Amino acid sequence: MENKVSLHRLRNILLEMHQDVLGMKENVKDEQFSEYVNTLLFQLKGAREMSTQLLRSIQKDNTMDRDARLKSVITLEVGHGPHPAGFEPGAVDARTKTEEWKVNHVCALACKQYLDTVGYEDVLVTDENNYLSKVGWNNHKSDVFISVHHNAFSSDKAQGAEALVHDTLANDNDLKLAKLCSAAFARELKIPDRGVKTRGLSVLAGAINNRWKDTQAVCLVEPYFITGKTVDDHASWSNRAGVAMGMAINEFLRGP
User: Fold this and answer.
1) Is 58 helix (H, G, I), strand (E, B) or coil?
2) pTM of the full predicted structure?
3) Which residues sit opposite 217 in a β-bridge?
4) What does the pLDDT look like over 223-240, one tens digit per residue?
5) For residue 80, is it left (φ>0), alpha (ψ between -120 and 50) or beta?
6) What does the pLDDT look like over 33-59, one tens digit per residue?
7) Element of type H or E holding 139
8) What whole-number distance in Å separates Cα of residue 226 and Cα of residue 43?
């Protein structure tokens, strides 16, 4: 257990370092220093992947026991971000220039912090191998798998919370988790609840194809529209969304 906690801490430190270096890269003009930054990013990515593999190697194949929910394995996949062809920011708020990938991170990390505080032992935040050809790779023996995204629209009047499940492959647990997430976002952010949508998304199909037991729940969340005219502090909104998602996950794992 001590090794697992230490690895979680190490991986989160590496994740924060990777984000800091990515931010640095955007402002680098010197070619030699830019090459150094790219090398550092490559090394950090390798270290993060190794820590992820180590975490997974010591995770137990525990069955869903409602009384032992704090030992449940929860995977929060950060949507968009680094991939072999470069970098995908996701949606971008034209007004504030906020990138979806960045607030996806904020939301996922806030959710993990909440769940850690509640007492969950296996909460993994990952943005590795989440590009299209590797969709679902991160779904490794989790009791809950959520792909974290944020909505956007051409009009700044659009606002509301929603969650998505696969249109043909979803099961009752997927639907239940999605409903809880959408309702929690709406409640905590004080926005309309757009409910659960069904889509044939690759990220959902890929994760479900890797579903390791029937009780596992898989969904994709869109806490709010980053393009909404009332959203000025994206970090605050996505932090609150992350806490709301943690509440929803905890409620789902508590069971009936």
Assistant:
1) coil
2) 0.73
3) 144
4) 999 999 999 899 899 999
5) left
6) 666 666 766 666 666 666 665 555 544
7) none
8) 32
